[in-house]
């Protein structure tokens, strides 16, 4: 008994002290040759859903603005949101820890790609602990949920995005492929995350799915099908679910397969599945195509509606939407109410008061928000 007391009272605190302080190392030592100048970040080794990586230690009080996170306010994790950085690893970490509350951004995890000799792909760095709210999805919406930062985990994949002029149409851009080691690490930790929190397949989505007017992210080359097939993560169709007959046999489609290419019917299915527009239906169609029917085929990331687009939208609705289909009016974003705009849309840092009348606020209208860049 006396021995047990000794271990608990004396050795345990010492052990905790050692693991949190002594095992903390400068980030320059964890990733040699990657950070210069030294960004003055301490990290500790961490087991991240089975992948050994590093976790950034909290910054001290005199640099508290480098901690880009706040409370989830008791809300439950329901979503996993995928991103690409459009910056290299070094720059991403600098941005996620800059000592500034001007457009602060972050994500729970950053996964590396092989971009320089001394940095392997598939390294996982935790920037924000899962129990805290990271700032990666801005004023977003999916289904009946808004402000998804509260209820999501965000993973940033280092990838430079695409080559070329941003004003080029999607199909004219050249996207960079994802590093296979990066996707492997992403698949492993995502599989752990969806199991731990019971995240529904249709709640594993991309940044552009929840903010379709913002930017392409994680783009048409993000391997959604591979994550589904190899890691059981997210929504997709199995190889034996690729025909109308197979879907009818296996599920209970809420509507007959639309025989014509019809934009309104396509949008009704997409809105029923979860997408919300901020007044631009075309961007919803593009986000859907990049995630599903034109995934891995940037050349089809245009606004033309093809039979495979109708099929994917119809089949996804049949497979994943369990509630009775509602005729969601395209173009609507759920409104939230609160006594002030800040209550209604806590991510919003600056409000256009005219849009805030009657305490009803459309979150997508927020102009300056915690996090939109990533
Ligand atoms: C915060 O304090 C530490 C330790 O005293 C010091 O090294 C660091 O430069 C300070 N940071 C700022 C932004 O003043
Ligand atoms: C990372 O990108 C920044 C510009 O965003 C560049 O200045 C820097 O040299 C790059 N670092 C590496 C290691 O590629
Ligand atoms: C910190 O990063 C954000 C997001 O990129 C940027 O808007 C802001 O200007 C940066 N602040 C500083 C002081 O570099
Ligand atoms: C959204 O809310 C409506 C109305 O309450 C409900 O019928 C529908 O099932 C909800 N959708 C989801 C995905 O929870
Ligand atoms: C991008 O393309 C647009 C339209 O073609 C053009 O007006 C603009 O000058 C281009 N920008 C750059 C940086 O090339
Ligand atoms: C984009 O690609 C399409 C199809 O190849 C082509 O017809 C169109 O002219 C291109 N647009 C631009 C702005 O390059
Ligand atoms: Zn993003």
Give a verbal description of the structure.
The protein has 374 residues and is an alpha/beta fold. It has a domain at 28-236: Peptidoglycan recognition protein-like (Lysozyme-like, 3-Layer(aba) Sandwich). The chain has eleven helices and 18 strands. The protein has helices at residues 2-22, 27-30, 89-96, 180-197, 207-210, 224-231, 244-250, 263-273, 281-291, 307-320, 341-344, and strands spanning 25-26, 42-48, 51-56, 69-71, 79-84, 109-111, 124-126, 132-134, 141-142, 145-146, 152-157, 162-163, 174-175, 204-206, 336-337, 348-350, 360-361, 368-369. The protein has an eight-stranded mixed beta sheet, sandwiched between helices. Strands 4-8 form a two-stranded antiparallel ribbon. The radius of gyration is 22 Å and the shape is globular. The termini are far apart. 43% of the residues are buried. Mean pLDDT is 85; it is low at 17-21 and 328-374. The structure holds 2-acetamido-2-deoxy-beta-D-glucopyranose (6 copies) and zinc ion. One 2-acetamido-2-deoxy-beta-D-glucopyranose binds at residues 168-169, 171-172. One 2-acetamido-2-deoxy-beta-D-glucopyranose binds next to loops.
